[in-house]
Write a structure and sequence with these properties.
Elements: H1 2-12, E1 44-47, H2 49-60, E2 63-65, E3 71-90, E4 93-111, E5 117-131, E6 141-144, H3 152-182, E7 212-221, H4 225-232, H5 235-242, E8 255-258, E9 263-271, E10 277-286, E11 295-303, E12 309-319, H6 323-342, E13 344-348
Antiparallel strand pairs: 1-3, 2-3, 3-4, 4-5, 5-6, 7-12, 7-13, 8-9, 9-10, 10-11, 11-12
Helix pairs in contact: 2-3
């Protein structure tokens, strides 16, 4: 009948749209006063450029090149990074976009028959395009500040071995970037620059850095403890191992300088090999730390049953922000080159 027809027709019609202020709040899209893009549903873009600059800078700092026998070199720092790194978000999907041009500083040394430095060279490695299309097949150009025949072997060393190191660092950076994005981590807020910088070439030691930590590395070396003890106190050997200027002392209270002035300190305690072990204790600091801040480095070299040496370095009083960088420096800039020169392996940390 007509009444049934009207009921049927009304049930088939869609429900009226909710008026403003009515309906289930869970299904109404409202404007938010805080302007938040809830759950990254709409298109958004987050800058990771400064995060990338920091990560790449750490990966290129102090990377050793070569075996340290007749020649040695290292990557010094990320000199320039041009371009942007962003993370795009759309409907809760995130993906990185990056297109960078990099310049990396390097230095190297050739040694004479006595182990002294015969030739020194410095230069740059230019990477014109680091992007999603090129990261696994990078092009790069190696330049020497002074192009001479004597320095050509060092440039060739950097072209071969330094190129491998740069490619490995870039690959590791891209993997870290993608992993960070996949896990949904946001870049940390950029810190205000410290009021005082003593040396922009390394790390700013801001006055606000108060917390300290410790560093420990353990290596096994083939030579006996006396050889390790003498090596760590010998100016020429340290110059050769680090491929940089150094000045060491064999006297308690004597001053030390390493990595062309980046590290300074003095001998606090020296115990030559007594048949079981040898000990070196340094008062030690980076020149970029606050002038009054020092750490303590204790190096113990213990003779093993096969005549080899177990070397343990324990460093206390390291600013917390510098701990990871300092540990990486000990390994990559001193103990790994010593390993290449003397033979050995890392056995713990």
């Amino acid at each position: 009948d007509d009444r049934c027809q009207r009921l049927w027709t009304r049930e088939q019609q869609p429900p009226p749209m909710a008026k403003l202020g009515e309906g289930d709040d869970r299904w109404i899209v409202k404007e938010r006063e805080d302007g938040r893009n809830v759950n990254n549903w709409h298109w958004s873009e987050t800058s990771y450029t400064e995060w990338a600059r920091e990560k790449l800078g750490a990966r290129f700092e102090g990377v050793a090149i070569g075996d340290g026998t007749r020649s040695a070199g290292k990557l010094l720092s990320l000199e320039t990074m041009k371009g942007d790194v962003t993370v795009q978000s759309r409907k809760q999907k995130r993906f990185p976009l990056y297109e960078l041009e990099l310049t990396i500083r390097w230095e190297g040394q050739l040694f004479d028959a006595s182990g002294g430095t015969a030739v020194e060279a410095k230069g740059r490695i230019k990477v014109p395009d680091l992007s999603e299309e090129t990261y696994d097949d990078l092009e790069m150009t190696v330049l020497c500040d002074e192009e001479t025949d004597a320095k050509r072997p060092l440039k060739e060393l950097v072209r071969k071995e330094g190129g491998k190191a740069v490619r490995a660092a870039c690959l590791a950076f891209v993997e870290e970037l993608k992993e960070t994005v996949m896990k949904g981590h946001e870049p940390p807020p950029q810190k205000a620059p410290p009021r005082e910088r003593f040396n922009a070439g390394y790390v700013a030691a801001s006055a606000e850095t108060a917390k300290t930590g410790a560093v420990k590395v353990v290596y096994s070396y083939n030579p006996p403890p006396p050889v390790l003890y003498e090596t760590l106190l010998d100016t020429q050997r340290i110059r050769g191992i680090t491929a940089s200027d150094a000045s060491m002392s064999t006297e308690v209270g004597g001053k030390l300088m390493m990595f062309s002035g980046a590290v300074e300190g003095e001998n606090a305690e020296l115990k030559p090999f007594d048949g079981e072990r040898a000990v070196i204790k340094w008062k030690w600091r980076f020149s970029t730390w606050q002038p009054s801040h020092w750490s303590t480095v204790l190096i113990t070299m213990v003779k093993q049953d096969d005549g080899s040496t177990k070397l343990t370095l324990e460093q206390t009083g390291v600013p917390e922000d510098e701990r990871e960088r300092t540990e990486r420096g000990w390994k990559g800039m001193l103990f790994e080159p010593m390993n290449a020169m003397l033979g050995g392996r890392v056995i713990g940390a």
